[in-house]
Amino acid sequence: MDLKFSKVTRKGPITIITLSRPEVYNALHIDAHFELNKVFDDFSADPGQWVAIVTGAGDKAFCAGNDLKWQAAGGKRGWDKGGFAGLTSRFDCDKPIIAAVNGVAMGGGFEIALACDLIIASENATFALPEPRVGLAALAGGVHRLPRQIGLKRAMGMILTARHVSAKEGLELGFVNEVVPAGEALAAAERWAETICKNSPMSIRASKQAIQRGLEVSLEQAIAEQREYPAVKAMAASQDYIEGPKAFAEKRPPKWLGR
Question: What's the superkingdom here (predicted)?
Answer without folding.
Answer: Bacteria
